[in-house]
Design brief:
The chain contains 3 helices and 5 strands; from the N terminus they run αβββαβαβ. It is of the alpha/beta class and 107 residues long. A 5-stranded mixed sheet has the order 3-2-1-4-5, with helices on one face. A hairpin with a 5-residue loop joins strand 1 (29-33) and strand 2. Helix 2 (48-61) runs parallel beside helix 3 (82-92).
């Protein structure tokens, strides 16, 4: 069900903190990047090429318009930025640029 997928998409990560942010609504594609650099989508560890293929399929389902695909990128605060940068660059090559970085509001 959609609820089960939503729970899987929100893998337990320690997100970076930033003032003034709000909880993001559910997105067609939620990408989690673990502290060790592993990419997780819908509970599955995948590579960047597989991720690009998955997002390209989502673009096709949305009429071929990359602007209609919203990405939420959730990177663990303890991780390096290399994997996140690689994801953003790779998705940019298929014209997907609506990428929101998830953060936590400091308490």
């Amino acid at each position: 069900t959609v609820t089960q997928v939503s729970k899987v998409n929100k893998e337990r990560l320690s997100l970076p903190e930033q003032e003034g942010t709000a909880e993001q609504p559910e997105a067609p594609v939620t990408i989690n990047v673990r502290a060790n650099g592993e990419i997780v989508v819908s509970g599955e560890v995948i590579s960047v090429p597989v991720l690009v293929s998955l997002v390209a399929d989502e673009v096709a389902r949305r009429g071929g318009d990359p602007a209609r695909v919203k990405i939420v990128l959730r990177g663990d605060a303890a991780g390096q930025a290399e994997t996140i940068n690689e994801i953003v660059k790779s998705l940019g090559k298929i014209n997907v640029t609506r990428i929101n970085l998830a953060v936590e509001v400091p308490r």
